[in-house]
Design brief:
single chain, Serine Threonine Protein Phosphatase 5, Tetratricopeptide repeat, 3-stranded antiparallel sheet, Arc Repressor Mutant, subunit A, 5% strand, mainly alpha, 31 helices
């Protein structure tokens, strides 16, 4: 497609105004390929690329902007572009050595400049220090981001404020931190921030509350984030919102829904996250563990671990339930004594709040191994953390650990009191799986104390709760059918949709074609190649070849640039005699080399992605999920119904609750 610069770039900006990020990206890409983009256009192109799910292009374009502004002598703009490279590397790749390299470039250009670029530099530097375990300087940088941002960039001030709030909480200033989080929430709900910053603040706010185990507040903000994300989220934000939603659903015992959200999050975040894809994978493992699906849990957790993510304590719990107590206790000891160097914005490493869930599982493992001294030490550390941070869930976890140590040590009466406290507190939180686990412990303590009748009652109630969760709470509480018949019909370029007494009309899109095929035959599994073939008019899937190289030349070049930046960071760390920084950078180097080795075979030949079905799986999943999101904007009940009933993957299906059937007219 041809066109002038005004046609293509002007069309891209019109698409941005209409929220059509894919179209804007297509037009910018055409203008770029034709050599029509000016230096001033690159910032908008980079932002559109991120919104359209093209992280590598986002980073490459900001790198181009940095080089271009340097060439024309605009140091301030070059610094701003360098900060953006660092920000995307930090938030989406968690590769800290390249982040430090790009921050150093920005710092040389900024000097004492108190511009928006400086405010964002302070934001990213704060997170870089947090993820490197250097919390005091991180807090100072967060303060600086707020001070500069309030004068020249409210978005930077908002992110800096939520970063400072999280750091205050980690320092034990819980009330002050929560107050700052409320202020950040008020800012984000005012609507004055851009979509990317809004998503970052929402995500950081929920992460802070989840880490503190303030689940009621976390749930409230997750719901607010979810409402906003249905229409306004860009880039990785919608996928991150799904992970938070999955965490809350799992806590509430709604594991069917939680697993669907976690799986969708993995698909949506795959184009963005690198090592931090371990975050939704580990949540998926946790959900499956609660459901009793040990094979599925282990598969997800090992995938997370392969990415460098901390898979314990859930992976250790899988091993314990399979009878491998020795491996579980050894892994937990190693994890607590030698914390992972892999950084995580969602779960800052090696803080007391990061240690708390590990300690709780470690207590059980050591009790089972017969080492009461180690168990008691971990229970005492956990109790101190609960006292410091004060949330109900942390106190529940600590009381449960104390009770199990007391029971193992022969103090049955003390164990009854502690485990009864844990049960009461978990019920107050609204966490049925955790409450049932405490109730089983209470039953053991009551039996040891001679109260066998009550022990039997407690055990029976706990087992009934766990049976409901492992069997799927969503399945035990059938959804009410909102309508006996529904409509999903194409009328030219518009689809007429009727469901639950409401009518919506939605502009045509490829994902709607896939949905129509799935709705026409409930419970039938369709291979993604057949869906693609039907949509293209071929009827059946033909030979489409393989999916091409696992990494294209631009992607491999980007990896190699990151490796050069990591090597430079290792040299700097050695010169500064900073062993921790060197070790962290060395782990990042190993991760990237592993990724490259998977994509490039012996002799430098490209390895091909598995098959056309993988390419089709990615395309169909994205199209279907985008279609469901568009439907939800116009018809929220149907969007929710499809979100739970549509299964994507290599085989896709529409699987409504059989006790609440919907008959579709098409």
């Amino acid at each position: 497609m041809g066109g002038t610069s005004d046609d293509l770039v002007g069309g891209a900006h019109a698409a941005i105004a209409g929220g059509d990020w894919s179209r804007a990206f297509e037009l910018f890409s055409q203008a770029d390929a034709a050599g029509l983009l000016q230096l001033a256009d690159l910032s908008a192109f980079a932002e559109v690329a991120y919104a359209a799910g093209e992280l590598d292009m986002t980073i490459r374009t900001w790198e181009r902007a940095h080089a271009g502004f340097l060439e024309v002598g605009d140091g301030s703009m070059a610094a701003g572009a360098a900060v953006r490279v660092a920000m995307h590397l930090l938030f989406d790749s968690a590769l800290m050595a390249p982040v430090r390299g790009w921050l150093a470039r920005a710092e040389r250009l900024l000097g004492d400049d108190h511009s928006p670029a400086y405010a964002w530099y302070a934001v990213v530097r704060s997170y870089e220090r947090v993820l490197s375990g250097d919390l005091e300087p991180a807090r100072e940088w967060a303060r600086r981001a707020v001070e500069v941002g309030v004068r020249c960039d409210p978005a930077a001030a908002a992110v800096g404020g939520v970063a400072e709030a999280r750091l205050r909480i980690l320092d034990g200033e819980v009330e002050a931190g929560l107050e700052m989080l409320d202020e950040a929430g008020a800012t984000v709900m005012s609507g004055i921030l851009d979509p990317l910053t809004t998503g970052i603040v929402y995500c950081e706010l929920v992460c802070a509350l989840q880490g503190l185990a303030q689940y009621d507040r976390a749930e409230q903000w997750t719901e607010a984030m979810e409402r906003w994300s249905r229409t306004d989220a860009i880039g990785s934000i919608r996928g991150r919102c799904r992970v938070h939603r999955a965490e809350i659903l799992r806590l509430r015992g709604r594991c069917d829904e939680a697993e669907a959200e976690a799986l969708a999050a993995c698909e949506e975040l795959r184009p963005y996250l690198r090592r931090e894809l371990g975050w939704p994978l580990s949540e998926l493992g946790h959900i499956r563990l609660n459901r009793g699906d040990l094979d599925g849990a282990e598969a997800a957790l090992l995938d997370a671990q392969h990415l460098g993510w901390q898979a314990h304590p859930q992976l250790a719990l899988v091993w314990r339930r399979r009878g491998d107590a020795a491996s579980a206790v050894s892994a937990l000891r190693d994890t607590l004594e030698q914390p992972s160097l892999v950084p995580s914005k969602e779960q800052p490493p090696n803080t007391p709040l990061w240690r708390a869930p590990l300690l709780a599982v470690h207590v059980d493992a050591e009790v089972e191994a017969g080492d009461l001294d180690r168990a008691r030490s971990s229970a005492e550390e956990l109790a101190a953390i609960a006292d410091r941070y004060g949330s109900v869930a942390l106190r529940a976890r600590a009381r449960g650990a104390t009770g199990r140590v007391q029971l193992a040590g022969g103090d049955a009466a003390g164990a009854v009191r502690a485990l009864a406290d844990a049960l009461r507190l978990w019920n107050e939180v609204g966490a049925p799986h955790e409450a049932a686990t405490a109730q089983l412990g209470l039953a053991d303590a009551l039996a040891a104390d001679g109260n066998h009748d009550r022990a039997a009652r407690e055990r029976s109630a706990a087992e009934a709760t766990l049976d409901g969760i492992t069997g799927g709470l969503a399945g035990s509480q059938p959804a009410r059918s909102l309508t006996e018949t529904a409509t999903f019909q194409r009328e030219g370029d518009v689809w007429l949709i009727e469901f639950a007494g409401r009518v919506a009309r939605i502009r045509d899109g490829r994902g709607l074609h896939h949905l129509s095929r799935l709705l026409s035959d409930p419970a039938r599994e369709f291979h993604v190649l057949d869906l693609v073939a039907t949509d293209s008019g071929r009827g059946v899937a033909g030979p489409l070849g393989d999916a091409g190289p696992m990494l294209d030349e631009q992607a491999k070049a980007a990896y190699r640039r990151r490796l050069e930046e990591i090597d430079a960071d290792i040299d700097d760390a050695r010169a500064a005699r900073d062993a921790v920084r060197e070790a962290q950078a060395d782990e990042e180097r190993s991760f990237l080399l592993s990724e490259l080795s998977r994509a490039v075979g012996l002799g430098g030949r490209d390895r091909r992605a598995g098959s056309a079905s993988e390419r089709a799986r990615v395309a169909v999943t994205r199209a279907v999920r985008q279609a469901i999101a568009r439907i939800a904007e116009h018809h929220a009940p149907l969007g929710e119904h499809l979100q739970h009933a549509i299964r994507t993957g290599t085989y896709c299906a529409y699987e409504p609750d059989p006790r609440a059937p919907v008959t579709w007219r098409s």
